Amino acid sequence: METTVLSGQILTPAGWIAGTLRASAQILGIEPGAAPVDRFVVPGFVDLHVHGGAGADCMEGADSVRRMARFHARHGTTALLATTVTAAARDLRAAMAGIAAAMAAPAASAARVLGVHLEGPFINPAVLGAQPPFAIPPDPALLEELAAAAPIRVATYAPEIDPDGALLACFRRLGIKAQIGHTACSYAEASTALAAGAAGFTHLFNAMSGLHHRKPGAVGAALAHAEAAELILDFQHVEPGAALVALRAVPGLYCITDAVAAAGMPDGTYRLGRRAITKRGSCVRLEDGNLAGSVLTMDRALRNLLALGLPLAEAARRCSTLAADHLGLADRGRLVPGAAADLVVLDAHGRLEAVLAEGRPVEPATA
User: What separation in angstroms does the CA of 137 have from each of 140, 170, 183?
Assistant: First the structure.
């Protein structure tokens, strides 16, 4: 692989360095020196919750996983978790096989698929959100079978359906980050789950018991105790004021897209697992009007963080480094020698100028 040399303001763990970065598949070195003041090199985005894009749903097999990975790479995402929906066991088995195949033979010029985010089926059937109606009680045997078929890195579950903690113990034994979501749990139940090893919260505020001063719910437990949580920052799932509250309260809060097949596509009807969803403008909804994932991309999430007033270094950290840290990855989400050459180049307004995914150039999207 040829060596790429980029110059600009380079975001390192120690802060901004004006100079040049050399990379092949890995970052080879960063040298201080003269560089453009309006060109910014930051880590490639890491999206730990993405269902699809460009018309593809990752429940539909390896080719669909590859297509969505190519789409999101054009928006600066260089690593992601293919995220399932609540589904019948046979459909989950098929999805795992497709994701595993896509990981074994990845697409060119695409985000690296790091594994699976299992969103359901172990959720509260009364808090489905847009999830298809296939929620089931804890089934450690099924979980072990699915984890053997493809690497599950993150799983969403509702603590109230696991009162004895057996499912959470199984997640931990398998090395899966268990996140609280699609839940009606109380503040006490969420706090107990965190103390027992739950690792964070799935799309904070959405599809969970909300905050009231006499009934603080899952959101209250997150704001009081969580080290990590996801946030869908499209300003539709979460209003700016709520986002600022979460950014102040949760040190490891990181952005996700929760993007579905409709992302990057014209208005129309698409699929989310076995559910039909409709895209109109920047919203995706079920027939009943509920939001059904998003059409957000990570470059837009970064610009939305900037619109909230965050400095670029902090916005980049919330879109890459903190998600990589959540998975325990030392070679993603940071610009250091030896790390994967996953990076994006931004102009002064946070717009993409260039993308490298493991050192390979990706043509950035223009919108």
Answer: 10, 14, 13
Residue 258 catalytic?
yes
**Confidence band of 366 (pLDDT split at 50, 70, 90):** confident
How far is the C-alpha of 316 from the C-alpha of 344, rounded, in Å? 10
Q: Which of 57, 234, 258, 342 is catalytic?
A: 258
Residue 329 tokens, joined: 């990855």
Rounded to whole angstroms, how far apart are CA atoms 367 and 365? Answer: 6
Peptide linkage before 36 cis (omega within 30 of 0) = no
Nearest residue to 82 (alpha-carbon basis) of 55, 47, 54: 47
pLDDT tens digits for 267-314? Answer: 999 999 989 999 999 999 999 999 999 999 999 999 999 999 999 999
Report whether 276 contacts 290 (CB < 8 A). no
All domains of the chain in start order, with CATH:
44-331 (3.20.20.140)
CA distance 259 to 291: 12
Percent of the chain clearing pLDDT 90 (strictly above): 99
CA distances in angstroms from 252 to 9, 137, 209, 301, listed in the order given: 24, 29, 21, 16
Rounded-to-integer distance, Cα 17 and Cα 53, Å: 34
Token pair belonging to 291: 């939001």
The length of the chain in residues reads: 367
Sheet of 112-119, strands arranged across: 45-50, 77-83, 112-119, 152-157, 177-180, 200-201
Q: What is the DSSP letter of 365?
A: P
Each residue of 227-278: pLDDT tens digit?
999 999 999 999 999 999 999 999 999 999 999 999 999 999 999 998 999 9
Q: For residue 12, with 0-12 CB atoms within 10 Å meaning exposed, 13-18 middle and 19 or more buried, which class applies?
A: middle
* CB of 229 closer than 8 Å to CB of 204: yes
Nearest to residue 356, comparing CAs of 344, 365, 340?
344
Structure-token match 């696991």, residue found: 162
Global model pTM greater than 0.90? yes
Using a 10 angstrom Cβ sphere, with 0-12 exposed, 13-18 middle and 19 or more buried, the burial of residue 287 is exposed
Return the closest-CA partner of residue 73 out of 104, 107, 101. Answer: 107
Render pLDDT for 92-140 as a digit per residue (tens, 0 to 9).
999 999 999 999 999 999 999 999 999 999 999 999 999 999 999 999 9
